[in-house]
Structure formats: C-alpha cells, structure tokens
C-alpha cells in the first residue's frame, strides 16, 4: 500500500484524553479514532492488525475442531427472561425497543442465543460433543469505558460454546481450549499467564481460568508463585454476583432450618451484625483472625458500594492471620433464590457454625432487607474448597507448592474459559436423548477472547520511546519501504521495483511515497513500528539500500538482492 493515499493520520502530540501508553500509541500511530466514549472507528492500519489477530484466533480454533458460525447482535428479550439475566445482568446490558415496543438487547455475550439454537438443532447424544464459535461485535455499557480498546462499550470478542453429554467430555474440551488459548496468545506475541479466576463472575460450577497479559496498567492483581505454576486472580466476585444464585447444584432435599429475619437498614456488615444481635468482634475475629484448629468458611460477593469497600478493606488487610489449616470455601451451587440481592446486595456471608463456638450462619435471603440465619453450608448450598487467594500476601510462601514466594503482578484479562455446567441448559431446557432414548440436560462450557483488547495489550508490552514495535505475526505490514526523496528519480525507481517484487512474493509492504522530509518519515516509521524498514536513499544509484530491524534497531547496508533475500 502507498502511504500517500492512505488514511494514516499520525500525531506528534500526545492526545490529552489518553492515559495509558497503548491508548496514546493507537491514536498517535493512526490505528483508531474515537467516535464516542468506548466506541471506535478502526482506521486502515488498525483494521489490518485486528484482522490478523482475528485470523490467528480463527486458525487455532479451527485447528481445535471448533466450528465457526455467526449469531446476531440483536437478541429478543424473551431469551434473556428465560435465563433470568434480563433482571440480573444490570446496567451493562444495552436494551432497546423495536417499533412495536418489543424489548431487545444488543448481545454482551451469546449464551442464550447459542443454547436455544443447539436445543433446536441437536437432539441426540450422537451429535455431541460440539464446540461452536463466532468472532462478533459485543456491546456492554461499561461503567467506565477507558484505555482505548482495552475497555470498550462496543468491542470484538471471540466467543465459543461447547455442549456435552458428560462432565468428562466437558473437561476434555476445556483442556483442548486451554491449549488452544496458549497457542493463540503465544502467536500474537504476548507475555501472559493463565490464572485461576474467581468463579463469581459468570457463575457455573467447574474450572475457570483467565488468560492474563502481564502489564502495569492491567486492572486485575494476580498472585504468581516464583517457583511453581500457581497463579490466581485476586479479583473479588463482582458485576453478576447474583447469577451465582441461579447456578449449579440442585437444591437440597433436606428441609431447611434457617430462619428468615427482617434486617432493614443493614447496609454495612456492622449494621447487619448489630441487627442480628451478634457480637461484632467475635464475628470479625472469626472471619479473619481465628487461629484455632477449626475450619472457617467465608463467602463474600459484593457489589454494594459501601459494602464492597468494607469487605475489600477486610480482605486487603495485610494483618490477615488465618490458621494454616483454615479452610476458605466458596459457593459452587445454590438453589435459585437462596443467595442474591439482599440488604447487602448480592452478598452472602457465611461463617461456619463450627468455628470457635460461634453458632452463626448468615446469608442473604434474596429479598431486600431480609437475611437468613442458621444456614448450613453443605446442606443449604454446596461449598468448594479453594486455595485462599485473598489470604495470600506478597512475599508469602506459595499455598500450592509451599516452596516458592508469591509475587503480585498486574494483568489484563484477554481470555476467559469456563466450565459452565447446566447454568443455561436448564432454564432453556436444552436436552438430548441418550443411548436409552432418555432426555438429559446438556452440559456446557464457554470460552471468550477479547480480540480487540488484545491489540491494546500488545501495545502495552511492545513499544519503546519512539513508538510501536509490532510482533511480526500481527504487524499491519511486514516491511516499511521508504524512498527518502520522492523527487529523486533513481530512488523512486529502485523503491518501485522493490515494492513490486516484494508484493509478488506475498510480502506486505507499506511504501512511504509521501513528499515529506526524511526526518518526518523516519519518525513516523518508528512510531508505526513495522518489523523491517528498507530505506532507499543516496546509495540507490549503486543498488544499495539500508535495512533496519525495528525491534533491535540493528541496521546494515545491503544490495537490493541481499535486502530481498533478507526479507523473503
Ligand atoms: P472484565 O473483567 O475486563 O470486565 P469480563 O470478565 O467481564 O472482562 P468476559 O465476560 O469474561 O469479560 O468476556 C470475555 C473476554 O472479552 C474478556 O476476557 C476480555 O478479554 C474481553 N472483554 C470483556 N469486556 C470487554 C470490554 N469492555 N472491552 C474489550 N474487551 C472486553
Ligand atoms: Mg466485565
Ligand atoms: Mg473479568
Ligand atoms: Mg471474564
């Protein structure tokens, strides 16, 4: 492509609205332009990068045996009512009405649509397992869209959904996706870590990993062991906490013995504790400082502002001292309606009865201003034992290998894989007939990648003071060809020849045929950051060009033939 005609508006000045390096670079190098907060136009250079990332994702997904399809962005509200997410998803869900006043959403994710499709089209165990994916625009009305493509309100995601007859089969596909994600993130040139994620966000009962790109601007804090592969996200459950209520395990058949208690005006734990007549000190000591040999179970899901702050303070407390053998558990399944929006919205607080003689188990009643007392973990909902990631402090001994030291890093979540279980197939009633012609509920997994977010993540990791340093695999062009003076006929002739020849070899070349000063061209070239620069200058008459590698800065003079060899 010829730069002279291209919409490639580079900027000298650092745009004021951009806070982080990747955002500054994508504006300065003319990759994108903002239309409105969190919504972007991809300019030609940026679009080429996006398509390359997309294709790497597509190739690796296809290699894994997944099938590509494409679902609509516009989705009828009925489907979202079926799963309960119309009410649970919150303000991130973009809702709209058609001319007949029927409700619709713009898909933030596609579990509802795919599950209802598979329910229609697949009826027999013979057709399972199946893994389908799409690369499609998503809409989320994020509270704080920011950092360019990092947190958009309209963004590109690869989302895959698998359907199974058994948990073993789900586990196999999950492993396959885990491998595929590693391959994808390696190919796009990122330094990343798969980490154990908090189960709260989407709900579901099984394994759950995030693929974190290590970068200081990342919004997540992850604990990584310097010795083994232990890595976990410290993020607390948020956003869709209420969904946990609808997830997983079946309600217990044993009659519940808990008591529903009116707890008005309990916006903080202190207030709750006092309304319930508990001794606050005991309560908190139990929660945080018990050093008895008794297990402690704490389950906290909060998105209430006041509450979140308090709980966060608790968990950030560096003085946290739990007995070595204290057990921290999380809810993995609860009967619908058991835990959910309550006085402490979306918060369930459970203290194991066995602890230090404190006879208390408190949970939200899924009803504003009510709580349940005397709930029994294990009876009233399932608890899964987890390594207590919140209990981990920088410099601690690794809870997994007990040898390494824990270090904290910041991470950008670029991918997320889940063993969903039956969270969506139950409400949508997606079943298949087994060998005995008996209807069974399908078991699901889901797997997301932030395709556009990857572009931001790469820029955070691959740049220097002069601009972008593209990894070859996703560079918008491989070669930047620069005739220094376009008024010099020899230079132009040599450059044109090289341009044609390289293109014939399938090399992607951007030729800076602009009538600009050399300094301007070189500055722009560094900023745009293509892997190889070939400068056609004063020596062009002798058939000599300069060959420079962006990443190392290493440069040499080569004959045209050598340069051609070097590139191809
Ligand atoms: P986050 O924690 O950053 O809000 P999420 O957990 O809500 O992300 P998922 O529902 O797991 O996101 O979606 C799958 C992937 O889509 C994420 O791992 C991320 O890479 C990408 N993604 C999610 N939200 C955005 C966004 N607002 N802009 C760009 N990419 C996003
Ligand atoms: Mg989110
Ligand atoms: Mg997340
Ligand atoms: Mg996620």
Automatic annotation (TrEMBL):
Keywords: Aminoacyl-tRNA synthetase, ATP-binding, Cytoplasm, Ligase, Nucleotide-binding, Protein biosynthesis. It comes from the Bacteria. InterPro entries: aa-tRNA-synt_IIb, aa-tRNA-synth_II, aa-tRNA-synth_II/BPL/LPL, Anticodon-bd, Anticodon-bd_dom_sf, Pro-tRNA-ligase_IIa, Pro-tRNA-synth_IIa_bac-type, Pro-tRNA-Synthase_IIa_type1. The keyword Cell membrane does not apply. The keyword Metal-binding does not apply. Residues 33-471 form the Aminoacyl-transfer RNA synthetases class-II family profile domain. GO terms for biological process: prolyl-tRNA aminoacylation. It catalyses: tRNA(Pro) + L-proline + ATP = L-prolyl-tRNA(Pro) + AMP + diphosphate. GO terms for cellular component: cytosol. GO terms for molecular function: aminoacyl-tRNA deacylase activity; ATP binding; catalytic activity, acting on a protein; proline-tRNA ligase activity; transferase activity. It is found in: Cytoplasm. Its EC number is 6.1.1.15. It holds the Pfam family HGTP_anticodon. Its main location: cytoplasm. Catalyzes the attachment of proline to tRNA(Pro) in a two-step reaction: proline is first activated by ATP to form Pro-AMP and then transferred to the acceptor end of tRNA(Pro). As ProRS can inadvertently accommodate and process non-cognate amino acids such as alanine and cysteine, to avoid such errors it has two additional distinct editing activities against alanine. One activity is designated as 'pretransfer' editing and involves the tRNA(Pro)-independent hydrolysis of activated Ala-AMP. NCBIfam families: PRK09194.1, proS_fam_II. HAMAP family: Pro_tRNA_synth_type1. Consists of three domains: the N-terminal catalytic domain, the editing domain and the C-terminal anticodon-binding domain. Belongs to the class-II aminoacyl-tRNA synthetase family. ProS type 1 subfamily. Homodimer. This is Proline--tRNA ligase. It comes from Tumebacillus permanentifrigoris. The lineage of its organism: Bacteria, Bacillati, Bacillota, Bacilli, Bacillales. The gene is proS.
